[in-house]
Amino acid sequence: MLHKLLKLWFRQKSGDGLEAKLGYRFRDPELLAHALVHRSFLTGKDMPYENNNERLEFLGDSVLNMLTTEFLYKTYPDASEGDLSKQKSAIVSGHACAQSSKEWDLGEYIKIGKSEAKMGGRGKESILADAYEAVLGAVYLDGGLEEVRAILNKFHFPRVADIVTADDFVNFKSALLEYTQGKIHTAPEYVIIGEDGPEHQKVFTAEVHVNGKVYGKGQGPNKKKAEQEAARVALAALKAEDVEHAKNAPPEAAPEKPVKPKRFFRP
Asked: pTM, whole model, 2 decimals?
């Protein structure tokens, strides 16, 4: 059960406004309150760590993945498994969830620590995305799968066409792998070379190596995003390298004209 301090906060700052935006009224409003607690809020307080929203986020992530898979399967009957997987990755990404959460002004309702708030935590993509999934998890526990499906049909799935075509959702790791395999018949290797910052605000640094050479370096709030950024940099570097090689390559000799054999007599 939720800590009594959080219950008091939720009574003081009711979720009525958020429920109205969701179009869903909780039978157990404590579930919604729980979904809005970021772990930074618990720092320095005599409160169990389990009072944060991470367990609900874990549940909501699974529900989102399942309903997204169902949506894509029904909406694109002719799409291949590979295409469906790529689209799904974009639709359930943290960036997509954070963008959808802004339709609810979700950042206004999240309970976060003072230091996190001062650093712009209410607008941070990772926090918004986690809270978005936690809310979906709370709705699932409170009202079942149909209620979550209704919310996604209203707020998330109408954005699918924009999500899967936006530059933000280019899978640079896949693009780099395709490029290196096609050009030099090898696969890139990723190495995490740095992990800095407090536990709730980690910054990871990744390098990508191609044939033993570092072609890109990137940072992100998790290993996946750091590797994506490194892949983006590496792909641009490899393409620029190819352009430079093409410029410096000697011009191809013009093909020789075939010499016709001389005829010394007529048949």
From this structure: 0.65
The set of catalytic residues is: 61, 133
CA 107/CA 122 separation, integer angstroms: 5
Query: What are the boundaries of each domain within the chain?
Result: 4-166, 172-248
What's the N-to-C CA distance of the chain in angstroms?
A: 106
- 266 in helix, strand or coil? coil
Convert the pLDDT of each residue in 7-40 to its tens digit.
Answer: 555 544 445 689 999 999 999 999 999 999 998 8
Residues 6+ apart with CB under 8 A from 38: 52, 53, 110, 111, 112, 113, 116, 121, 127, 130, 131, 200
Phi, psi for residue 206 in degrees, rounded to 5: -125, 150
Question: Structurally, what CATH architecture does the domain formed by 172-248 represent?
Answer: 2-Layer Sandwich (3.30)
Instruction: Report the topology of domain 4-166.
Output: Ribonuclease iii, N-terminal Endonuclease Domain; Chain A (1.10.1520)
What does the DSSP assignment read for 33-68? HHHTB-GGGGTTSSS-GGGSSHHHHHHHHHHHHHHH
- The half-sphere exposure of 50 on its side-chain side, counting CA atoms within 13 A, is 3
- Measured between alpha carbons, how far is 200 from 218 in angstroms, rounded to an integer? 19
Chain center to CA of 91? 8
- HSE-CB at 183 with a 13 A cutoff on CA atoms is 16
